[in-house]
Amino acid sequence: MTHTTVRIAMNGVTGRMGHRQHLVRSVLALRDQGGLELADGTRIRPEPVLVGRSAHKLRALADRHGVEHWSCDLDAVLGDNTIDVYFDAQITAAREEAVGKAIAAGKHLYVEKPTASGLTGALKLARLAQEAGVKNGVVQDKLFLPGLRKLRRLVESGFFGRILSVRGEFGYWVFEGDTQPAQRPSWNYRAEDGGGIAADMFPHWEYLLHELFGPVRSVQAHLTTHIPRRWDESGTPYDATADDAAYGIFELAGGIVAQINSSWAVRVHRDELVEFQVDGTEGSAVAGLRHCRIQHRAGTPKPVWDPDVPASEPFREQWQEVPDNAHFDNGFKVQWELFLRHVVRDEPWRWDLAAGARGVRLAELARRSSAEGRRLDVPEPTL
């Protein structure tokens, strides 16, 4: 059996997402299962090299997971010719400089989104990677969630007929950090550190809408900071300078209207932390992280508005669950597998830095739309 080892410099894996999803549930999971097996029996074996600023945290992480190599010297790691891929899950404000160094070092790139703090930086990275001829990818994990893979199945089968609208609800209550620790890092609420829910979530909404329903042609958004004072990891109070809620209306190619609310100041009254309802002439669906429910035109009830009597119809029971019909692995791991195939075998890949720039552009236009109080067209970005 032939083995191909891919050494991956993983920067930012001491953070919550980088550690749990990318290191443990993706790269180490692939390592521990003996690698990624290709059709000809070859196995791609990922070998992580941990990179970060805290030697104490990196050493503890490496010892816990049996990782041999770690370093606080990014330049030295990028200068190592045995390193094939650079992965970045740092805070947004630190990403552009590090990714630029990795491009200059000739490394293939796989990075979290947003790829930069602004569109100018995101387009610059995409252009530099293209000119350097390095393979590059952006994490677009929600495309690979079970519920949204079922939703894609419905779209591709023509289940909806003509799609009319998409309505999304995302978010949960993030504690302020005074009486209970916050479940998100404090930099998320500081604009000067690249925080803000629009910067975080609008890139997700861009690729989901683009891939499932069509390109975004216009955006009208309202961004706000509902909770202006929070407490950081050390218990010190600070002013929240970034938006913690963003309300957006998007017009898509073909006339589909999407409305998505994103908030870290909302209490959940949904079955899942994110849900999308898609309505079409022939049917509707509600998809979340794992589940997807449908209601076809032929089985749609006929409600009648009557505010004087209690509701008698069990509306939720009138929907049918879409079966799994397949095994759904961790969404981050699935995309890692596709990227490693792209790096080793040059298999098809479309989620590159240029695609990531579209998400940064949408977040930037949303901020501008909110500040100016008007709808803005969304042009195609050019490198």
Which features would summarize this protein structure in a list?
383 residues, alpha/beta, nine-stranded mixed β-sheet, seven-stranded mixed β-sheet
Compact summary:
The chain is an alpha/beta fold and 383 residues long.
Give a description of the structure:
This protein is of the alpha/beta class. 32% of the residues lie in helices and 25% in strands. It contains nine helices and 18 strands. The chain has helices spanning 16-32, 55-65, 74-78, 92-104, 119-132, 146-157, 197-212, 331-345, 353-372, and strands at residues 3-11, 36-37, 43-51, 69-71, 85-88, 108-111, 136-138, 163-171, 216-224, 229-231, 237-239, 245-252, 257-263, 274-280, 283-287, 292-296, 320-321, 376-377. The strands form three sheets. It has a nine-stranded mixed beta sheet with strand order 17-16-15-14-8-13-12-9-18. Strands 1, 2, 3, 4, 5, 6 and 7 form a seven-stranded mixed beta sheet that branches. The chain has a two-stranded antiparallel sheet with strand order 10-11. Strand 12 (245-252) and strand 13 (257-263) form a beta hairpin. Helix 4 packs parallel to helix 5. The longest helix has 20 residues, at 353-372. The mean pLDDT is 96.
The major beta sheet can be summarized as:
9 strands, mixed
Rounded average pLDDT? 96
Number of helices, counting only DSSP H or I runs of 4 residues or more: 9
Strand order of the largest sheet: 17-16-15-14-8-13-12-9-18
User: How large is the share of residues in beta strands?
Assistant: 15-25%
List low-pLDDT spans. none
Outline: globular
Structural class: alpha/beta
Approximate helicity band:
25-40%
Query: How far apart, in Å, are the first and last alpha carbons?
Result: 42 Å
- Structure summary, number of beta strands: 18
Radius of gyration of CA atoms, rounded to a whole number = 22 Å
Instruction: Give the SSE order as H and E letters.
Output: EHEEHEHEHEHEHEHEEEEEEEEEHHE
